[in-house]
Amino acid sequence: MQFASASHSSVDMNQILKGRRMRRNRASDWSRRLIRENDMSTNDLIWPIFLIDGVNKTDPVSSMPGVERYTVDMAVRAAEEAAELGIPVIALFPNTDPDLRDETGSEALNDNNLTCRALQAIKAEGFPVGLMTDVALDPYTSHGHDGLMAGDHIINDETVERLCRQALIQAQAGSDIIAPSDMMDGRIGGIRAALDNGGYENLQIMAYSAKYASAFYGPFRDAVGSNANLKGDKRTYQMDPANTDEALKEAELDLNEGADMIMVKPGMPYLDIIRRIKDAFLSPTYAYQVSGEYAMICAAAQNGWIDKDKAMLESLLAFKRAGADGVLTYFAPELARKLNGK
Ligand code: PBG
To answer: In whole numbers, what is the pLDDT of the chain averaged over residues?
Structure first.
């Protein structure tokens, strides 16, 4: 075939291509499906859910269009929906009553706190859904930090001791996956030992191994009510967004301390970290598409600037391509409904 260029000089494309035409495989929908390397399935989803006190109420998160906080009874309904949609796991995050927040986050150690009540209520229904719980003090502290404070300093070892107790309390209430998001040193080893000593040697741990000090958590902090409280930032414990080798070190330590699964957070700006961790350790690896990522897609779609469904699917597929085995995403129920044809 001859190709006429703008200058009317002709180029012999067959000579150039020698039969190598990449577009052949892309020519039809069936062929594109046949050569597709990665796919998103409901089995890849973890749905993060926010909890509030009260009965039969939902409360919209204004910075996360379509996301609601649920009272415990409504969270039970959400878990039922997750089961019906085939979503394997839901992750619970409490918005603790401001009156119950204090300097040490003592409500975290109350075995009747919002998270524990939700765990018990959902567990009682026996849905085929795993329940994941966040281990960190920030939803319970008056200063919004994930650990205990001495002046401006976040104290590592005493915080870990508290996190071990928090994890045990969540285990007793019915958690299936303990997910420490605090970034203290040694917390995975401490929590693994505490769980084992408590008879929970089969409980899984998903470590937020590479959690960066990120601007993309803003809407989440609105959702759990810790934004206004937060004094300073979290850069003395969460990672510097400039680093990658350090993320591998964190993941290695967490795996050696007993983590069953590794998480990278935020998601889309850190696809390189997912790929490196997956390649280095060949362990179950997850991405957290965080609140700010969700909010950006929704806000652009609301303005008519991008197609929401397409951007949602493309953003999630990117995690699979980067090597993630699954994704925590606020889009989970919406995507699952689409995949289920609902
Ligand atoms: C805190 C925690 C955060 C998120 C999950 N657990 C916020 C933070 O570290 O300040 C963020 C999740 C999101 O933005 O969707 N332990």
So the answer is: 96
